[in-house]
Write a structure and sequence with these properties.
Spore coat protein; 63% helix; elongated; mainly alpha; 92 residues
Length: 92
């Protein structure tokens, strides 16, 4: 599928991600996982401190969202790590 023409210096829309995941991609996903895990932990901590049930429910919902995003990223990372050949030492 051809990419759309865009002004110079901008990249076109990619309808689906490439099957190959670079080490830079893996590091970025790992960073996103760390951010989501930290956000989930903070939300859970602050939800326990809340007295207002509506605020507590909203913060718990945010914690669940971050946990869900973490799990989705983990599944994506694991599926790509299983598809790619491992970099093995060829010396014997």
């Amino acid at each position: 599928m051809p990419q759309q023409q865009t002004p110079e210096g901008q990249q076109g829309f990619m309808p689906e991600p490439p099957r190959l995941m670079t080490s830079k991609d893996q590091l970025y996903i790992t960073d996103m996982m760390s951010w989501n895990l930290l956000a989930s932990k903070k939300c859970n901590f602050y939800a326990k401190q809340c007295q207002d049930p509506e605020v507590k429910a909203a913060i718990e919902k945010a914690a669940s969202m971050h946990t869900r995003h973490y799990d989705q990223l983990l599944q994506h990372l694991q599926s790509h790590l299983g598809d790619q050949p491992q970099n093995q030492n060829m010396t014997q």
